[in-house]
Amino acid sequence: MPDDITPPLTGPSNEDLTRRLTQARYPRSNSYDVRWVIENQMGPNALWLLEWLGPALGLDTLRPCARVLDLGCGRAMTSVFLAREYDVQVTAADLWVKPDENAKRIAEAGFADRVLPVHTEAHDLPFAEGSFDAIMSIDAYQYFGTNDLYLPTLTRLLKPGGRIGIVVPAMREEIEGVEPPAHLKEWWQPDFWCFHSADWWRRHWTRGGAVEVETADWQPDGWKDWLLWCDVIAEESPQEFHRTMARDVGEMVRADQGRSLGFVRLVGRRK
């Protein structure tokens, strides 16, 4: 991983940060340079979430050079992770980050031959039916995939029997009515209405008939990882926008203490 990202003039050393962020349940993620991960984050720790998704998605069982679509890849950290950890060919698709920017990042990480950055919108994917052995999305699918008609159009890109897997910010229990939980009102944003429960996601994917849902579960203590990461980004991100956002989200997650907020993992196999 790149080791030339300039650290802040003040604050903990890389060694201190590495100790703070090392987690026994994320052995793969622990090997990545913490400054590189902080520099390229766009929300919760995407590498931790992808490492949690990996076993359910069957990434270890994919053949070498299998084709994987990383949908909503952001700055392509997860795409590099997929190529490095699972020896697959990755299409890194994103709307907001320019392919040229991701191509530079991917090349610096040493995976230009295995990760292809693509600029595309999730409802207009320029790929043929059956192009991919697997599709995955980390902290993105909730923004474009809640329409009942979306999943069948996406899963046509999978080979028969291929899996799609996502991890999304979620609610422990589905919200009833039109008001957020009272203890979260201070921080609630309209975008948060796309946070749903594991049961909601299972039902959403099942009733469309495009996939057989194999996993739909809540991450135990995921909120603690989220809070730790928010605290680190609020202190260490080189971008003021991300520091401010992390402080705000961190306050919400700290106030919630796992009562409502966390992450859901969802995996389905194309029928």
Describe the structure.
The structure is a single chain. The protein is of the alpha/beta class and 271 residues long. The chain contains 9 helices and 7 strands; from the N terminus they run αααβαβαββαβαβααβ. It has helices spanning 14-21, 34-40, 46-57, 77-86, 99-109, 150-155, 198-208, 222-236, 240-256; strands spanning 67-71, 89-94, 115-119, 132-138, 158-171, 211-218, 261-270. The chain has a 7-stranded mixed beta sheet, with helices on both faces. Helix 8 runs antiparallel to helix 9 (240-256). The protein is globular and about 45 Å long. Residues 1-10 have low confidence and may be disordered.
List keywords for this structure.
seven-stranded mixed beta sheet, 271 residues, alpha/beta, single chain, disordered N terminus
Question: How are the SSEs ordered, and which strands pair?
Answer:
Elements: H1 14-21, H2 34-40, H3 46-57, E1 67-71, H4 77-86, E2 89-94, H5 99-109, E3 115-119, E4 132-138, H6 150-155, E5 158-171, H7 198-208, E6 211-218, H8 222-236, H9 240-256, E7 261-270
Parallel strand pairs: 1-2, 1-4, 2-3, 4-5
Antiparallel strand pairs: 5-7, 6-7
Helix pairs in contact: 8-9
